[in-house]
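Here we describe the complex-level prediction in full. Unlike the single-chain runs in Section 2.1, the two entities below were treated as one system.
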Amino acid sequence: SGLVSLLVFVLALEAQALTPSHYLVASDVDRLQAVLSQPFTDLKSAYFSVVGLSKLGVSVADSNDACSFIKANVDSSSIEALFYAAEASQAISSCEIHVSNETRDSLHAAVSEDSTVSQIHQAVSALSSLGLPLASQEVVSALKARISKEDNVVAITLALQTASRLSQQAELGEILEEIEDLAARLDDLGGVYLQFEEGLEATALFVSAAYALSDHVDMEPPLKEDQVIQLVNSIFSKKSWDSLSEAFSVASAAAALSNNRFHKPVVVSAVGPATVSHSHPLLQLHVTDVLCQPLSSANVLVESATSVASKAAILSQTPFTLRDGIFELNFMASKPASGYYQFSVAVTGDSRLVANHVELKVKVSTKVAINNMDLSVVDKDQSIGTKTTRVEYPNKGKASFIADSHQNFAMTFQLVDETTGVELTPHQTFVRLHNQKTGQEVVFVAEPDSKNLYKFELDTAERKTEFDSISGTYALYLMVGDATLENPVLWNVADVVLKFPDEEAPSTVQSKNLYVPKPEIQHLFREPEKRPPTVLSNTFTALVLSPFLLLLILWFKLGANISNFSFSPSSVLFHVGHAAMLGLMYVYWTHLNMFQTLKYLAIIGSLTFLAGNRMLAQKAVKRYSLHHL
Amino acid sequence: MSLSVIAVISRFLEEYRSSTSNKLKVIDAYLLYILLTGAFQFLYCLLVGTFPFNSFLSGFISSVGSFILAVCLRIQINPQNKGDFLSVSPERAFADFLFAHTVLHLVVVNFIG
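The structure predicted for the assembly as a whole is:
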């Protein structure tokens, strides 16, 4: 039993297989074709356009024009030009390029270990397209040597492409193994995408090269089904292409994925929203390959269709019919109740199909009918008999209903499916009371009981807070809505006059408007710090400066004087310079920055230093001579 | 006890008056001036608060720095210390004093804000 549960688990996992979330739709394929159909500017763009269109199964607009363009622009001395010309001319029917023996020899010479993989690829493809013989084994050894030197994604992809043009007898085994190595280098992004960090073009070219080579040697490429779908997601996530080469690579990849021997990804999508109803009973699906071509030979089957709500199975193993490229099924014929259904669709008929089990959520819509709408005013003490009035949709009750604090207002009704008469319980069943005079509205929810009969009761006294005790005439509306209803209902059933006790003066209701301008926020700039009073500051300034006075007095008392002042130029210059330096300090404080100050200080300082040095030297001489008299 | 302190102080003052040269007394007066300036700044800071702190610091450091430089000048000029400062003439001491002051004032003015 452990084995059985393991098997069930594995099967359950398989049922969760990846399906493409990004794919080309018809308009995208048209856009791709339009990009590739732009007029040629040079031989390279002609190659991309002609060969790209042929991959999409379309021939270029004016093939004679294209052929003459190619012949006119081919430069026999360039391997690259020969490659473009040869490939393009082969894609155009009855367009042949003739090359001289010299050209043929230069192409052969390009196949060597000294050429790059790109050059070898171009030479080999040109030779092959021109129908010239080539030595496959030489090519293989040259490629092997180059792969070890140029170990990047683009180079190895070109090597794979080249190998697919060689003879099947050549030893392509080692090159074939490169597919697996390259596949290992793909980055898995979130389990959804698989691509090279080199980008979309590299990934797309890898896919086309891998399948070209696999088809050529008839060996399945080592790509798992989920990986193939992740590659599909990566390559077809971009719906407009930056360059002609990018568009070409996408077209190549699309052609490879829609027509190779091993893997054929299937794209299943609903035509429009996946909704059926009595007016539109058919569920229509597009079942196509990656190039948006319908898989006309496939069998599309609903394996099971279960109701999401009740988990009951409605369909099992029911086939779709193909009409005009679209697969259809009349789901309403099975008379499903309205709601959501989980479809499990399988596409069979070709062993190559990948992602051929798809889960789809289908909605069945219906129209609702309101039956047995009964309105009544019930007295709370039940002494007076209830008066029930029936109102038919969409009419309005003729008389108003009056309810004051001693009475309750009651409403019962049924909601049924218009066609089948089955009772429905939609998501939204609201009773709205709208006071036309004040604009106030109050909304209540009507709840179904166990027999799916909807009841609404309004106790005037209990609910007076919702109404702000404003008495008056209220229009009563019934609102019915649901995602599966085609006809949502807003029905003015009747007018109800409510009388509340302790009525306040009716004030007009101010609708709570969230989107009025809010009061402006005044920005509070940083308050400057509190300073001490000016008087105090001034006092202390005077106090701090006062010792200077004392100094002058003391110096005077000591008899300090400047009687010995010699008016020599250096002395004068020194004092002037020194005064200038002090002045500079003041100017620095008020105006300058450090750099300017240092600049001025350097000038004044050096002058002062020289003058001072001279002056002090003179003083020293004087002192020395005095002492040594 | 207090009598001996007063006696010591008056004796010190007498010695000072008689034995110090005029030049040194001039510098001592300057030292007293610097001291008082610094003390008053500190008093302000204690009483009123440290705002603006950078100004207080630069002013106070200026006083302290000037005091130290003046003391150095006094030591170097004093003929009694001639033995310790054989390579430094009084003129050289004064030049050093001026240069150091320039640097000090540059820093002080930068910081005063």
